[in-house]
Amino acid sequence: MNQTVITLTTGEKIYTIASEEQILQQITNNQGLMNKAFVVIGDVHIATAHIVKIEGPKQKQEEFVHPPEKTEQAEEINKTEHTGKKEDNQNQIELLEQELREAMQTRDIFALDTLLHDDLVFVNHEGTYITKEMDLEAHRTLAVRFTKVSCSDLQIKPTKDGAVTISKVRLEGQEGEAKIEGDFIYTRVWQLIGEEYQVIAGHCTKL
To answer: For residues 168 and 76, what is the distance between their CA atoms, to the nearest angstrom?
Structure first.
């Protein structure tokens, strides 16, 4: 038989077939405030001040609705979803890195404008501060011309809103009259801006 359990401050438990709702109606007013000093359960008079908890049959049953294995299963699902999102993020950043290298080599101003944030902070291998507009202008005027931009190693470190990439890149081309040829390490910070990832900061070092 389903019974309601009343727990007292002494630790004693009193069982009754009366529902939790019926008991509360006896000892509270319309605002849910206790307005009776005693409640009668069968032949027992109980001081309402001594009542710690009233548990109906439904409440006691609910305590066993969620077994540990279900909780573990939910945690496993959350871990799987998190891993999936992380892999999707890395794959997207890897593709964006490839698009950026191709845009550098083909002097695709539109692609560069899309991939680079307006407030880009970039420091080149000579320690020179480069803005987005300076970079676009160099490609637009052919001041910098790359004939080869190839990546031999790429590491992606996911962040909360994007990723940090570290890549080893082979560059060949011209900068003015000077020849460009060598291996460089690029570090870029990608951040989700609206719905698109953009490079907000970067640095390169010549090996």
So the answer is: 36
